[in-house]
Amino acid sequence: xxxxxxxxxxxxxxxxxxxxxxxxxxxxxxxxxxxxxxxxxxxxxxxxxxxxxxxxxxxxxxxxxxxxxxxxxxxxxxxxxxxxxxxxxxxxxxxxxxxxxxxxxxxxxxxxxxxxxxxxxxxxxxxxxxxxxxxxxxxxxxxxxxxxxxxxxxxxxxxxxxxxxxxxxxxxxxxxxxxxxxxxxxxxxxxxxxxxxxxxxxxxxxxxxxxxxxxxxxxxxxxxxxxxxxxxxxxxxxxxxxxxxxxxxxxxxxxxxxxxxxxxxxxxxxxxxxx
Amino acid sequence: xxxxxxxxxxxxxxxxxxxxxxxxxxxxxxxxxxxxxxxxxxxxxxxxxxxxxxxxxxxxxxxxxxxxxxxxxxxxxxxxxxxxxxxxxxxxxxxxxxxxxxxxxxxxxxxxxxxxxxxxxxxxxxxxxxxxxxxxxxxxxxxxxxxxxxxxxxxxxxxxxxxxxxxxxxxxxxxxxxxxxxxxxxxxxxxxxxxxxxxxxxxxxxxxxxxxxxxxxxxxxxxxxxxxxxxxxxxxxxxxxxxxxxxxxxxxxxxxxxxxxxxxxxxxxxxxxxxxxxxxxxxxxxxxxxxxxxxxxxxxxxxxxxxxxxxxxxxxxxxxxxxxxxxxxxxxxxxxxxxxxxxxxxxxxxxxxxxxxxxxxxxxxxxxxxxxxxxxxxxxxxxxxxxxxx
Lengths: 275, 390
Known about the structure:
The complex is a heterodimer of chains A (275) and B (390). Chain A has 275 residues and is an alpha/beta fold. In chain A, 33% of the residues lie in helices and 25% in strands. In chain A, helix 5 packs across helix 6. Chain A is globular, with a radius of gyration of 19 Å. Chain B is an all-alpha fold and 390 residues long. Chain B has one domain: ABC transporter involved in vitamin B12 uptake, BtuC (Orthogonal Bundle), CATH 1.10.3470. In chain B, 68% of the residues lie in helices and 0% in strands. Chain B is built from 16 helices and no strands. Chain B has helices at residues 2-5, 47-70, 78-90, 101-135, 147-160, 169-192, 200-224, 227-237, 246-265, 267-273, 277-282, 287-309, 315-326, 331-355, 364-380, 383-387. In chain B, helix 2 (47-70) crosses helix 4. Mean pLDDT of chain B is 79; it is low at 1-15, 17-37, 164-169 and 386-390. Chains A and B meet through helix 1, helix 3, strand 6, helix 4 and helix 5 of A and helix 10, helix 11 and helix 16 of B.
């Protein structure tokens, strides 16, 4: 697909999307997302915010087609998500999950190379990575500062190192959309900043659409073009950080007092808790 | 703690360059690679390494076969083995009336038995590898989680209710064992997919209980059966590799060939499944299809193996673990390498079982349990497994 064409239309279109975890054992009382309708611009960084249990992570998994909605329609770059194969989706959309548990001794490089899987179909899943695959993985690992850890086992590195390797794996998929669930949760300040800057660069220079779920309102405020505030499975507000991070709105959703002032450098909203 | 003392240079965000011709189909263009770190330095599996390891494992298996052929009540020298084997392959030596008894022992007793051991050990190891990836649990083994006893129940029903006595002898037994193994796998999978917090201990407990239930059925069947037949059943259940003929081996090879082909094609999908089903799906794996294929292949292999050799435990546990530690966790290498190593392991174990107390012998399952049991207990205490308890 042409980059310009991708940038013009929305990345996702959602129409009345409803999702619940239970199946036949439960009724509709377990619904996590209710009749979500929205459009997600391509080429932007969107932050999805909301209290615990508001359905943020679930929405992300639905966008990655890891979970299927109970009803409703989702379009990815104009194509119905339900008609695409898992690999079709994985070539366009990469998901960075909240945490990665690995009990088998794969090296970090092996795990990053797994990102090439959706690009090799047609041999029943068996394939060898070629020189291009290695180069793409190499570059992604360099971008995420994990190249020197390539030979270490996934089970032996720290949570932050693993998280960066998982982002490198996602970039190795060469996606047009990157979905991240709490990308900075396990990272120290230095690497939080690194990840945020890398995401912004990928967005600005390569037109990558970034959708991230975060509890870190300030990081979202500084780095996201748009914010979406979810509460109890509904979209409460969508807009720029200035529109969404309003003290009255946050107080009504989070149920506690918050102070909102301006970031000294960027002038964007800065959220803090009262003493 | 050494890690925290390392002074790592501050990571600079590397420049992400994009060339003007960025409308390439992929949407991105990679910046040129630094010369200091060639791409081939990524520590991951290459075809060269794969060929080297699989070829090495194959050669080792051949050596193990030749060495094991020499042991027995009557030792045979290596030069003699060599000349008989080469002669047979070239067609200059064959068995007829008046052939040297050594040749008969070698070609009609020891060789088929060792080949059966190789098939059985290799298959059990590969089923272990596949189940461990699918259940994301390094302690999964067809014996421990009750798949083997499911197959044994199926085979026992076939034997005792006379299905096996008909003309069908050859085909009905493995089919019933396959059905039993599949039933056990489905129960196990149903248990493992209930709830998100499924832990290693739940799996083990469920396996113990499943084993107990199937064993109870088998004991019931043997107690109502005619004593002569029951004795044969017991001997078979303990695991035995005695007396295969060429047609048995051929039939087993067909079953195993199908199962192994299916597993082999899913190797890369198994790699991704170790990351968890949701992550595998997000990377493009059709998880449900892969699971179905692997379950059917695992049941087919376990059913075939159990119906020909009874229950032999722990091969599917220790061999994958050892190969993973020494070679790689990548299933493209792990599956074939574990197959060869598992085959070798059972050839050696069976040679021990028939030579230690020669001329009498004990079940090969005794050897595998004596080696495998302690390894299992050790694994249960290691860090990575406790970390994966969920």
